Amino acid sequence: MVTFAVKRVRRITGTLAVKEGNQATIPAYGSLTVRAQTGAFESPIGAQGEFYLEDLPPGSHEARIDYGQRPCRFELEVPNKDQAAIDLGNVTCLHP
């Protein structure tokens, strides 16, 4: 008998938009960086604003979208659910 260590992967997905004034933009092909107590988590951003993160813990985390000339910073809320896949839906970052 052989024993293998198994790690459950928790997937966090959603789509991003950056809103400045009344105009919303999809940050296509940018990058998302999320900082948690356990480290930094990164995802490229797809053509429709989609992102994918693995094993990001639940809670409120500092996040940054790098797209265009200046980054957009916001808090990314990850619910405390015991699911292997969590879709956060549409997430909007507001430029001040």
Structural class category: mainly beta
Element-by-element helix/strand order? EEEEEEEE
The radius of gyration is 15 Å
Shape by Cα distribution: elongated
| Total DSSP helices | 0
* Most strands sheet: 4 strands, mixed
User: What percent of residues adopt helix (DSSP H or I)?
Assistant: under 10%
Given as residue ranges, the uncertain stretches (5+ residues, pLDDT < 50) are none
Mean pLDDT: 93
Subunit arrangement of the protein: single chain
Number of strands: 8
Strand content: over 45%
- What's the N-to-C terminus distance? 59 Å
Keywords:
96 residues, mainly beta, four-stranded mixed beta sheet, four-stranded antiparallel beta sheet, elongated
Question: What is the fold's blueprint, element by element?
Answer:
Layout: E1 11-20, E2 23-25, E3 31-36, E4 39-44, E5 50-54, E6 59-66, E7 72-78, E8 85-94
Task: Please provide a written account of the structure.
This protein is mostly beta strands and 96 residues long. It is 0% helix and 57% strand. Strands 1, 2, 5 and 8 form a 4-stranded mixed beta sheet that branches. A 4-stranded antiparallel beta sheet has the order 4-3-6-7, with no helix packed on it. The model has no long low-confidence stretch (mean pLDDT 93).
In short:
Helix content is 0%, strand content 57%.
